[in-house]
TrEMBL record:
Gene3D superfamilies: NADH Oxidase (3.40.109.10). Pfam families: Nitroreductase. This is Nitroreductase domain-containing protein. The lineage of its organism: Bacteria, Bacillati, Actinomycetota, Actinomycetes, Streptosporangiales. Signal peptide: none annotated. PANTHER family: NAD(P)H NITROREDUCTASE RV3131-RELATED (PTHR23026:SF123), NADPH NITROREDUCTASE (PTHR23026). GO terms for molecular function: oxidoreductase activity.
Amino acid sequence: MNTRTTEEITAAVQAAVWAPSVHNTQPWSFVVENEEIALRADSDRRLRVGDAEGREMLISCGAALMNVRLALCALGRQASVRVLPDPDRTALLATVRLGGPTEADEHTRLLYDQIERRRTHRAGFTDVPVPDGLVEELVRQASAEGARLAPVRSEAAVRVLAALTEAAQEVQSQDRLFSLEMIRWAQPPGSARPEGGPAESYPREPQRTRPHFAQRDYAHGHPWGSDTERFTAASTGLVAVLTTPGDTREDWIAAGQALERLLLHACAHGVRAAFHTQALEMVHLREFLRQELLSREYPQMIMRLGFTGDDSAAVRRPITEVLEERRAT
């Protein structure tokens, strides 16, 4: 590969590692060979208890794939993507082969510019509502990747989602295996680990939103968390559910791509997201939501969207830990 191609591939992988992932596990790795980037799932980073099927892992990897696509296009290269190209290699989720030159449109460049700015929020939002026009555009962004973003406008439905989230959180917090898994991905204050949930990224004593959506207990009994003013807002924000018509591995990867596309568009307009996957990690609760609230579509992510002053830093592994380069043969 020439120097320019090497730089483009490096930039694409660098963009990929900024994708959101469950508990910031960053469950991906990349192999580069002959101007092709292979995205692989890192099963050692899968949540063995909370994500036994690997659904959340593949959603996370789908978000990383979205960033690779955006980066290459923004850098002026076409990209040919194959999802799940080899059924005998289950860890291989996608290949991205670099093509000829292209010119990115303004929106692609806008999304690319948000990749390192996007942050996951873990508290309440301000009272400023998300504009209806922006919500409609977020719906279109998800649809472009084969998923559906469903804003939850019914107060009763919001209460149901909040209650199920809190119930699942209570059950998981009493489960020793769930708790041990959370502890693995929780960072104490001052930690230098480039993974997991930093103590500075969530409030020490969060205000309850109405209705209240339970947050993960990363502190697990320790006085961790931040006391900064960015966590004083207490609005629930706009509740939305990302769904897919099917529930295959391909659907999960598509959901991840849709999620990242809509999050980047939201970020460009000052909107951030808080995620709530507790109820989706319990088979019977997820099926209840599918049957009773979501027109039989499969819920892949529950989120709240809103405005916040949160400017917390994010931690990511260096690409030297996730990238393997193979010489052409």
